Every structure is written in C-alpha cells, then in structure tokens.
Amino acid sequence: MKPLYRNIFLLIGVAAVVIMLLNFDMSWDEVWQRVQSAGLWFPAVVGLWLPIYVMNVWAWYVIIHDGESQGRIGFFRLLKYTISGYALNYVTPVGVLGGEPYRIMELTPYVGTAKATSSVILYAMMHIFSHFCFWAASVVLFLILYFDHMNVALWLLIGFVTVFCAFGIFFFAKGYRDGLALKALRWAGKLPWVGKSIRAFTAENEASICRVDDQIAALHAQRKSTFYLSLSLEFLARVVSCLELMFCMLIITDHISFWDCILMQAFTSLFANLIFIIPMQMGVREGGMALFTDGLKMSGGYGVLTSLLVRLREIIWIIIGMSLLKVGNKKFKNTQE
C-alpha cells in the first residue's frame, strides 16, 4: 500500500480517537477512579482481546492459504492487518468503509488483487455470519434459562430476533453458494449519486468480479472443511469475548453467570449492529447494556460501568491498531494482479 493511503487511514483513526475522548459523559477524574476500582480486571479485559484477535486471524489465515501453494503471507503480518483493520472498522461509519479496503490494499502485493479481494470479502462474510449464528444460539440459550419467565413482550422480541437471524443465515448461505460481489455491486449501482460511478466500475471490472464470486462459491462448495473451521473459529471468538463482560461485572457483583454474560453480549451486539451507521455505536452499547441489566433485575448503572470499561478497552486497541499502520511495512516494486 502507498504510504499516502496509510497516512489517510491513520489521520481518520487519530481524529476519531480524539472525538471519542472528548465525548465521555463523565470527568476524567471519575473515569480514572473507575479504572482504579477495577484493579487487575481492567488489564485482563484489555489483554483478553489478543487471543480473540488471534482466533480472528486464524479464521482469515485458513481462507487465504487453503489450497494455495503460492502467494503465502505470514500469520503475524496478518495479525497486524487484522488489528489495524478492526481499529479502522471501529472508527468509521458502517464499519467496512475503513477496515476491509485497507486489508485488500495491504494483502494485494502478496496474493494478487483477485485473491486479496475474495479472501477479505469471504472473511468479512464469515465474521458477520458468525454473529447471526451466535445470536441464533443465544435465542436457544435464553429459552432454556428463562422459559418460565416468558411474557408476551419477550415472545415478540424472541420472535423478531429469530426471524432476523433466519433471514441473515439464509442470505449468507445463498451468498456462499452463488457468490455475492457482483450482485452487491449491481444493487449498489441503483443508489442515488454514487450509482453511476459504481455501474461504470462494475462494467469495467466484471471479469475480475466474477472471479471473486467464483472463489467465494468454491470455498463453501469444494472446501467445506476450511469453511467450517473458519466459521467455528469466528463463533468461538464471539463466545470468548463474553468473558470481557464477565470480568467487568465481577468487579461489582458476584451474582452473574457466564451464560448471562453470553446473553448480554448477544443482546447488546445485536442492538448495536441494528444501528450500525454510528461510529463505535457511541451511546448505543451503553443503552443496550443498561436495558439488559435492568431486565436481569440489576442496576442499570452496572451496565453503564461495564460499557465504560469496554469503551476504554476499544480506545486502547484502536491506538494499538493505528500505531501498527506505520510499523513493519514492506515496500513492493510491483503489485500482483
């Protein structure tokens, strides 16, 4: 990737971090007091995300290298791109406007444009698909744990989430079977203002886009072991991330189980993703956690405190990801096509 592009991504990240730091709802003295009260649990929350990112990288790594004897890229370099890519996703609206283009540009010199594009799209699809699987599994878990407490409002909520997850799983299953890139670009070509440019790009690069779709379809149809290994790693990463909430909640109460933390994570992540246009879902996660803890008959303040610690963890990893943009970059004379 050209240094200019990295500097643009870095500038976006720095600006976002500054805005986030200036928009805390409490004074920095109070924030520091909360962090001190967390003790060793806060470093545990921050450190937990390294193994989570390792699982994310492993899921992407097997997609890139499955059946490939050339164009290999090291695991730790992918870890750098993954952490930086997620940092950019955190700070840009709609998420994928930052991290995915960055990953494609960084990966292209190693494996070529078509392979880089298809592997990034495949991994992004896998990441989102694992969310739908996680939400669907959480519906089953909720019914097992709280069936006796169900009322009309909860049945309606569970019904909505079930339909939403079923639609998402169907959409991605169809995308894996038939490819998704060309259809998505044709749909985007109907949008106002940008549609004309997207249609021109699609027409000019249709052959390359079709190759990307062929590679997407081939993963599910011909290399099922790779597909399910990648999906399992992403699903496991969702489950392990629930330990973050448990670490935060153990600071203030011992009356919560890991299963409740799974449900809280599922509820708040679903709530945040339904309002995905807000960078870092500022204010959305806080509201979701407060609502869920209230539903568990706990003080909504527990959810707000947990969200504060999670927000600080995100800022730390965003800073790490932005720093990695400028570290260990190779120079390439030519880019593979």
Structure description:
With 337 residues, the chain is mostly helical. It has one domain (3-324). The chain is 78% helix and 0% strand. The protein is built from 14 helices and no strands. The protein has helices spanning 3-22, 28-38, 41-65, 75-91, 99-111, 113-146, 152-178, 181-188, 195-204, 206-222, 224-250, 258-274, 284-295, 300-324. The longest helix has 34 residues, at 113-146. The radius of gyration is 21 Å and the shape is globular.
Summary tags:
single chain, 337 residues, mainly alpha, 14 helices, globular
Could you tell me the number of beta strands? 0
What is the SS-derived class?
mainly alpha
Q: Mind describing the biggest β-sheet? A: none
Number of spatially distinct domains? 1
Uncertain runs: 277-281
Instruction: Note the overall shape.
Output: globular
Q: In percent, how much strand structure appears in the residues?
A: under 5%
**How many helices in DSSP terms?**
14
Q: Give the SSE order as H and E letters.
A: HHHHHHHHHHHHHH
